[in-house]
Write a structure and sequence with these properties.
It contains twelve helices and 18 strands. By secondary structure, it is mainly alpha-helical. Strand 9 and strand 10 form a beta hairpin. It is globular and about 50 Å long.
């Protein structure tokens, strides 16, 4: 077990942190937005605001954990870019993307994107004490609640001035969804972090509201899985089992329960999260790794970087809930071995491959782009270090 933690700590310190530090744009701010599979850096590629928020979260959390001065400087650099360029000074909210030199590019306002900024800003505040960051996060929460919500929950995509538009950005598999499990999950994650650092009562109530949605609308008790894409009133649109999102939800929901500390909600949700993790272990954990998803019962066997990272945390979380269930700890260590062998790119100046085929062959997708970030794998490292240190 100690070797497992040592390897992951070394990976964080010697692979992930130096790689993302190397992408710092000293001229225009923020971090470069594209590194191809060929390891060619495009310094003039757009900067995704989700990517910047996730980098801000990563360095803030790494600084909080490791207390190394350079990590605070890295987080400060990401914060300045988010504050000065990603936030729309005219209409409020966070853009989808800006140009390499900070001009608005894709001005879509997506609820998911606002959530990641709140998540990052809350962590940055917690790590540095920057009250301005917390004020920005509070303002973004107000925008979500006033402009991006209906009586049934959180909506998805809007124009720059907050008129509803179709949700191409978070719809896949041939459907256009008015509500998604994914956006709900990440609003929940953001509000959990905001509540952790503020104990704001309104945020606590919204966490309860979202937990009820997960338990009563999103979770399919019969199939022991979450549904993924919905119409406005939470009717499922497609037979899709998102293995990665389910294992991620299992521990993010438990984190929310821990932070909220409401016994009634723990009683309601904790059995569901345990059921989700067990179902994933039984159905999707194959050949030392987690498959991607199943549409209409047909498995997509691609091994995706973020899914493997979330699996390690999800299985450790499941083991911590039931320490007698050693299979979950063994599975987490097994998936880490798979990551080391197949997903970590051995080339100098790289990080993890986006995904590999079922046989471990890398698929030629970018190493960095608007969705490929240090949030999942960086968080995996930090969660393992924290959780396993507490367990030893």
């Amino acid at each position: 077990m100690n070797t497992f933690v040592q390897e992951i700590e070394e990976h964080l310190k010697t692979k992930l942190i130096p790689f993302w530090e190397s992408l710092k744009d000293q001229k225009y701010g923020g971090y470069y937005g594209w590194l191809g599979y060929d390891l060619k850096l495009d310094k003039e590629y757009e900067k995704g605001c989700i990517l910047n928020s996730r980098i801000l979260w990563f360095f803030s959390s790494a600084y909080e954990l490791l207390k190394e001065k350079n990590l605070k400087e890295d987080a400060d650099h990401a914060y300045e870019f988010l504050k000065n360029y990603c936030i729309d000074r005219e209409y409020g909210g966070v853009f989808w993307s800006v140009t390499y030199d900070g001009k608005p590019k894709d001005t879509t306002k997506h609820t998911y994107n606002q959530a990641f900024a709140i998540y990052a800003l809350s962590s940055y505040y917690n790590a540095t004490g920057c009250k301005d960051a917390l004020d920005i996060a509070r303002g973004l929460q107000l925008i979500i609640e006033e402009k991006m919500t209906d009586e049934y929950g959180y909506l998805e995509a809007f124009t720059r001035d907050f008129r509803p538009e179709s949700n191409e950005k978070l719809s896949e598999n041939g459907v256009l969804a008015e509500k998604t499990m994914n956006t709900l999950l990440h609003v929940f994650e953001a509000y959990t972090e905001f509540y952790r650092v503020t104990k704001d009562p309104f945020t606590g109530e919204r966490l309860r509201f979202m937990m009820d949605l997960f338990a009563d609308k999103v979770y399919n008790r019969e199939l022991k899985r979450q549904e993924v894409f919905f119409d406005r009133t939470w009717n499922s649109l497609i037979d899709l089992y998102s293995y990665g999102h389910d294992i991620e939800t299992s521990w993010l929901m438990d984190r929310g329960l821990e932070v909220l500390a409401d016994p009634a909600y723990t009683e309601k949700l904790a059995p569901i999260t345990a059921e989700i993790a067990e179902a994933i272990y039984e159905k999707a954990y194959v050949n030392h790794s987690l498959m991607n998803e199943a549409e209409k019962g047909v498995d997509d066997t691609t091994r995706v970087w973020w899914i493997q990272a979330e699996t390690v945390v999800g299985f450790i979380n499941a083991w911590q809930k039931k320490p007698g269930e050693k299979k979950f700890l063994q599975a987490a260590e097994d998936v880490w071995e798979y990551i080391r062998k197949y997903l970590v790119d051995p080339r100098e100046g790289s990080e993890w491959f986006w995904c590999v085929e079922a046989d471990g062959t890398p698929i030629h997708k970018p190493i960095v782009e608007p969705w490929k970030c240090p949030y999942h794998n960086g968080r995996m490292c930090m969660e393992v270090i924290r959780r396993m240190s507490d367990a030893s």
